[in-house]
Design goal:
Helix content: 25-40%
Shape: globular
Number of strands: 21
Structural class: alpha+beta
Radius of gyration: 24 Å
Largest sheet: 6 strands, mixed
Length: 510
Amino acid sequence: MKVPPTVSPVRARFLVAALLVLTGCTGSATTTTSSTTVPIATTTAPDPCPEHLCVRLELDPGAVWSDGTPVTAADFAHTLEEVPTSGGHDREEGGVEVEVLGDHELVLRVSHEAVPWQSVFEVVLPAHDPGPTSGPLTPTGDGGFRGDGFRIELVEVDGVRGVIQALRRGEADLGWIPDPPVWAVEELSALEGVETIVSPGRDWEMITFNQRNPTLQPPLIRQAVAKSLDREALLDLTVRTVDPTAEPLDSTMWMHGSGVPVEPYPHSHDLEAARSRLEEMGCSPGADGIFVCDGEPLVLTWVTTAGDPWREAMVERAKEDLADAGIGVEVRLMLPEDLYAGEHLFGDGWDIASFALEAQADPGAAAELYLCDGLVNVGAHCQTGIAERIESGLLATDPEERREIFDEVDGEFLRQAAIIPLFQRPVAWAFAGAAPASEPAPLEGPFEVAVELGRDIRIAVVETPGDPATTGPLDLLTESLRRVLYRGAFRARGDGGYEPDLVVDFEVIP
């Protein structure tokens, strides 16, 4: 695809990434249909998919691309060719296949049942022409985007300070800064005519344990660590420096604003209870106050990323809390590319790790990290029965059933202290003019918010050097744009279920 010469290099890379680089799509479309999900039906016919999960999908006959061409099953088949890996399914490994039965009917075959089949077509691409879109935005051809009666433009800026300068000079209408520094929030809040909102973002800060270490396999040891930590103090040192109203995250799966009731976190700060759990394990305090378990001092290696002021402040405070409970900590700060390397984070050499996960609307993303036979199991947490419950939750199509299953899994993760959730890293939003009626949701990016505002918007875009282990702002912008350019078969909801988008009817063939 040729980029118009009026488009700058940054804007060109952004547009090309949004329109072409669609591997790893995780968003869901914002355009809805009036259709409802039908109950799962069973069939008595011979099983057409003995080694697969089969789903018959009926598509919305009224769905069209922006050029008026109808959306058909051929677009779904084309999407698998363009996006070989989607929703955790790998076509090239035989993980997913499509059989086109007609213009608006197809059969989806999925061999890896531990991944929800609704996520296969999170985005559907046009087969007849790469240009048309299906969401509420359409590219204008000059680097901008057109909605229903409004236009969105990108304004390139140099770093976080450039966002502030563009708003101050009236060159931008919307500023969006993930994980904002304190000084940036202060300067944004001082701008005249600009409304600033700091809200929870999609990055979930957490602590996990490496259960490859036999010492950390008993839940009582992990619970002792969890009860040693003063999470309120950790929030005061970090997220509350920019958002004083920030609350601790009390779930491993449900995000702030998801609308899902969350049970109270089970491991309140209690040093006496922490010591009691260690004693229950047969450990006893040594001469230096550190507990000794099976003849070895309980000293744990805590790894986190270097150069992150919040994580460095957290680990130092956590070290003090654990020492008060009789648990020693050796802190190891690592470069992100070293910490997140597969041979390290998914291997030995650490006992406790603190980092952020990029949350998804569907809780299965978090649960899959603890599937014992999955590709990635961060903490080697393999409690009997949990994997089976996770897999049943991933396959459940009824929203209530799905939520109940993941509530149960979430409760077990928390009770056993497999994960210690801390907080959602914030996002700073700055609006020249009226802000949206409600606080932006954690998974929303600037394009979804601009569409909601429905007026001409200039978005300040920051280009930052890409960190190989994290998602940069430009990538998050691309994901936000993708969600408003293209519809999908289903869209994930914050309560753990899926809603049909391009699909109006479906049948799961057991």
